[in-house]
Amino acid sequence: MAINNIVVLGAGVSGLTTAYLLSKDPSNSITVLAKHMPGDYDIEYASPWAGANYLPVGKRGSDHEKWERNTWPALKDLTEKHPEAGIHFQETIVYNRAKDQGSATGEWFSELVQRNPWYKDVVPDFQDIPASQLAEGIDNASKFTSVCINTAIYLPWLVGQCRRNGVTFRRAVLKHIADAATATANGQTADVVVNCTGLASRTLGGVRDAKLYPARGQIVVVRNDPGKMVSISGSDDGDDEVVYVMTRAAGGGTILGGTYQKHQWDPLPDPNLAVRIMKRAVVLCPELVSEGQGVEGLDVIRHGVGLRPLREGGPRVEADHVESLAVVHNYGHGGFGYQASFGCADDAVRLVYGVLERKGRAKL
């Protein structure tokens, strides 16, 4: 049996999911190279900071919709059959204020808050909330069953699945993507390199994608559990400030957010912004605290900042050649890396096999 030597760059959710799917084929010898690995907390490493949940934001008819649509069955299956992956179902409520449209957060949530969204036939229990039940200033709302992921469990779970299938993990910092060709676990030259480096693709030699930029997200993690996920299209505190509340599975705490600050690189939590985040969360979701309590009823675990890897024109999921090296890119997923992870990885895997087939090493 011919062995396909594959290097995956990056150990965020995109890189790990792609490596996991590729590792199911025993003819693939896979090496994951990454500067950051699960367990690390660094501003450059977005995946640990994510909520993370399934709130579809892809425009109807787009590749983004396809990726999110194709990811839901995998997340649902993991939730039902693999509790060790750290995912659980939660009731989800999404509120929309028409006045937020045109803001950074309104643009981000524009598909999510549609009155007739495409995902209504994907997620379970979707229903519109009657106007008579909406507070003043809310133009429409819906509720459905979604999932929330404990990233501190799920990312290591993906590593474990990969290792069970023979994947090798190595720390590395590469200046040029071509350097990955000689970094395989078995010493053979890579047949293809899969680039899942997120924002690092801005500076990675051979890629240097100027279309990438960060959208800074600041969060507060608390011990309070409201028993549901809640989000809204914007806030009155700024066009790039929003409100969302999501409780991670298996004791992972509740994420309070947040911000969507484009082209903002600041790695340090802003204490004033943290207070606004907590105040907004308690107003939107009073169940967070006991009756009569405000922010003082929140039990804070930590504050955090992550940089979502946004890309003009959307994620880059395509085959490429850098010098003589065959490359498949899968990066630039912004704030929807988890909820599009399996859809994007499926496409990346197909591209990998397309490369291998052209080399005469595999058949689709």
From TrEMBL:
The keyword Flavoprotein appears for this protein: yes
Homology family: Belongs to the DAMOX/DASOX family.
| UniProt keyword Flavoprotein, yes or no | yes
Question: Listed GO cellular component terms?
Answer: peroxisomal matrix
Q: Which PROSITE patterns match?
A: DAO
Going by the UniProt record, its keywords in alphabetical order are:
FAD, Flavoprotein, Oxidoreductase, Peroxisome
Where does the record place it?
Peroxisome matrix
A single Gene Ontology biological process assigned to it is:
D-amino acid catabolic process
Recorded GO MF terms: D-amino-acid oxidase activity; FAD binding
Protein name as annotated: D-amino-acid oxidase
Read off the lineage from the record: Eukaryota, Fungi, Dikarya, Ascomycota, Pezizomycotina
E.C. no: 1.4.3.3
Sites where the protein binds D-dopa: 335
Cofactors that this protein relies on = FAD
According to its UniProt entry, this protein's organism is Aspergillus homomorphus (strain CBS 101889)
Q: What is its main location?
A: other
Q: Where are the transmembrane segments?
A: none
Residues involved in FAD binding? 197
